[in-house]
Amino acid sequence: MSIESFVQTLVFGVFVGGIYGIAAMGLALVFGVLKIMNIAHGELLMLGGYVSFWVFTTWGMDPFVSLLVTIPMLFLIGLLLDRLVYRHIVTLLGEEKIKNSMLVSFGLTLVIQNLAQWGFTADERAIQVAYTGTGLSLFGVILPYTRLGSFAVAIAVTLLLHVFLRRTYYGKAILATAEDWEAAELTGINIHRIYMMTFALGASLAAIAGTFVTITYGISPSIGIIWTLKALVVVVLAGTGSILGAFPAGILLGVVEAVSGAFIGSTYREVIGLVIFVLVLILRPQGLFARK
Amino acid sequence: MTKFLDIQSINAAYGDIRTLWDVSLQVNEGEIVALIGPNGAGKTTLMRLIAGLHKPTSGSVQLADAPLHTLPAYEIVKRGVILVPEGRRLFGGMTVLENLELGAYSSRAREARFKTIQRVFELFPILAERQKQHANTMSGGQQQMLAIGRAMMGLPKLLMLDEPSLGLAPLIVENIFEIIKLMNEQGVTIFLVEQNARKALELADRAYILEQGRVVGTGAGKELLHNDEVRQAYLGFAPAARK
Description:
The structure holds two protein chains of two kinds. By secondary structure, chain A is mainly alpha-helical. Helix content of chain A is about 75%, strand content about 5%. Chain A has helices at about 5-35, 40-60, 65-90, 95-120, 145-165, 170-180, 180-185, 190-215, 225-240, 245-265, 270-285, and strands spanning about 135-140, 140-145. The longest helix of chain A has about 30 residues, at about 5-35. Chain A is globular and about 60 Å long.
């Protein structure tokens, strides 16, 4: 393998990893703050992809610009889902909470998936912009514009989320609730409002990831569960308490998959990712980027 | 003195286990009231119940004649009833300053937070020095000061403290109790749970004794301090020799 094609593999791995990172960050945020496992996260990602797709086909809006429509759309859907479904789960305690959240969100997965199939048909859709297939060429390594753009947005979103959580009063209230929800209540924080906003924020992150998927691969109503699992692997890699650590962990998984795909064969790329997942669970169960 | 916090016939349970039996007690405005009793008597449960973290199965909690037990915890904080929980429960990954700022989260306290923080720093100069330090890297005494400071940021009318002396050196305990007294002189009503019964009774205007979920005695702090039964049960005196 030439050095160029190796670097090319790495670059593609990093780009794909950026999507993994954003998809996982939403899941990690919801898990870290609400302490629920939202199996329907991939479904939200799929819905986000469809919103971007329809905005693109209806108004011809560039997918990166259409994020301005897609993000608020999924934010609203997130608020609604929290009100209708998740609000009744977050009040449960301990094991009952996590088990019920998985069951209920798994059911929701089926509902959303079938609604999507009924509304959007089972056809695979993708966004083909004028610059799809073109890219920047650096020393024989090609950086496709769509993937480069996605990665740049992913980094910007991660930085924004970092600043929001660590520097703003509201963001700190979210982190305080994540750390100790009773203590947070005792300072006057309305934790149910925090839960609702956090869930909507998680849905918005899924919307961004979904848009990237539509640009990079294409979407169909059945892709949700694949992305939930991918995000789950990344969340465990990062460490379940680490929200922002999901981004570097996502990139790590992307690179590992790409490199193992190139050297061992693409049929095994998923396997290597899962082997690493199991190794991390055995050797470093607190995750790679956990703070505690 | 007017009745401020009024607890009437509270019953509470954790699952199938009843923890409070028909508990009634009052805290008047401006008072320091202590609640003493052995481990597992239900003292912490009662505190958590007033703060809204736990709901009673029956009975009522009223603050200045308005029901408190029907409200969520953050609404109770907004009304000026603030709990410093057992074990301090600071946001360990955050700095001293961030912990204090979050203490003023409720709308009533938020606008005044820059003024309040100066008052907290006057009472606890160490917190001003350590503003940027992470809460979980501080000593136990400093953490307790921060916990009380965080509660002060919420502008309490009724400050509840659950075991403020737990695990602290005697000198620090002295210091904490002086600050509680000072806050009381500045107009904050205090309701205090303590294992350290002697200190609590010395400080309190009145006290209640809770055993196995029931109020079994009440009286002025000084009175209880000299009561034979209380001395035997909580203050470590041997039964008086029969004459």
